[in-house]
Design a protein that fits this description.
With 280 residues, the chain is mainly alpha-helical. It contains 11 helices and 4 strands. The strands form 2 sheets. The chain has a two-stranded antiparallel ribbon with strand order 1-2. A two-stranded antiparallel sheet has the order 3-4. The longest helix is centred in the middle third of the chain and has 22 residues. It is elongated. The chain starts with 16 loop residues before the first helix and ends with a strand.
């Protein structure tokens, strides 16, 4: 069972490797460090501690960036802080053993802590015996509760395989999202062997809601993402509007046309400014 804590070393924020990874991946140092923190937590929770199981999509969703940025960082980390799916230096910085104690800091060793625990339990047992004759019924109830707690703690938890039981097509959809459009997107991701995880589905519904407030139809966003072969949802690019000629440019054009009329001695001609009599 994975521990509920992990260790950080003092020089971790200023480790020069982050600059190297940031330069190679062309990503900000802050994002590089954030990705590494997620890898540390995932490796600590893993059944085989030190091994990373989190997906690129989950990292991109958690940090609100593109999967390309995450993939670039993970590739740059290989050989520096990653060895395949294993965090380099894990055994050195995240030992299984507890500290051995220190007289200088007052920290107790694992042996001392266990000894203190047994002493507390022994004292508690003696106190229970002295109260047994006065509160026997209550003591029986407490013993029963303790046995139930022990059974619950000793029952092993069966870890659920990541993404093995989730179907993104069954998630509750908002009223403004058509079921058929969402099903097309889920089927497209599944066909590319990139099924949407539960966390990824929630994030993408939030993205569609945001795009909708910006004036993009969810159906257009999904169609654009499928056509572009994207793993995430991206709205279609809007064409820039043609700039209208400035008033100064319009006046210059009018003057040029009027000059041509006068130079040729033509009769009245219709131009953008109206009818001009060029005979006088």
């Amino acid at each position: 069972m994975a521990n509920e804590w992990l260790r950080l070393w003092h020089d971790m924020p200023n480790d020069p490797k982050w600059r190297t990874v940031a330069r190679v991946s062309a990503q900000p140092i802050a994002l590089v460090q954030a990705v590494y923190m997620h890898l540390l937590v995932d490796a600590s929770r893993s059944v085989t501690r030190g091994h990373v199981t989190v997906t690129t999509e989950d990292l991109a969703s958690a940090l609100d960036v593109t999967e390309d940025a995450i993939e670039a960082i993970l590739a740059a980390m290989q050989g520096r802080v990653l060895d395949g799916q294993y965090l380099s230096g894990w055994d050195k910085r995240q030992p299984k053993r507890e500290d051995t104690g220190s007289e200088k800091t007052g920290a107790k060793s694992a042996v001392q802590r266990k000894r203190d625990q047994r002493e507390r339990e022994r004292s508690a047992a003696q106190l229970d015996e002295s109260r047994q004759c006065h509160d026997e019924s209550r003591e029986v109830t407490l013993d029963k509760d303790k046995e139930e707690d022990k059974e619950e703690k000793n029952t092993p938890l069966t870890p659920r395989k990541r993404g093995s039981a989730f179907d993104a097509s069954t998630i509750d959809l908002p009223d403004w999202l058509d079921q058929e459009d969402w099903q097309c997107w889920v089927s497209e991701r599944r066909a590319r062997k990139k099924p949407i995880t539960e966390e990824g589905a929630r994030r993408q519904l939030q993205q569609l809601a945001q795009y909708r407030t910006e004036g993009h139809r969810p159906a257009d966003v999904i169609a654009n993402s499928i056509a572009g072969g994207y793993q995430g949802l991206f709205p279609p690019r809007t064409q820039p509007r043609a700039r209208s000629p400035s008033r100064a440019q319009m006046m210059a054009d009018w003057n040029a046309e009027l000059g041509e009329v006068l130079a040729e001695g033509r009769r009245a001609t219709v131009i953008d400014m109206g009818t001009i009599d060029a005979t006088h």
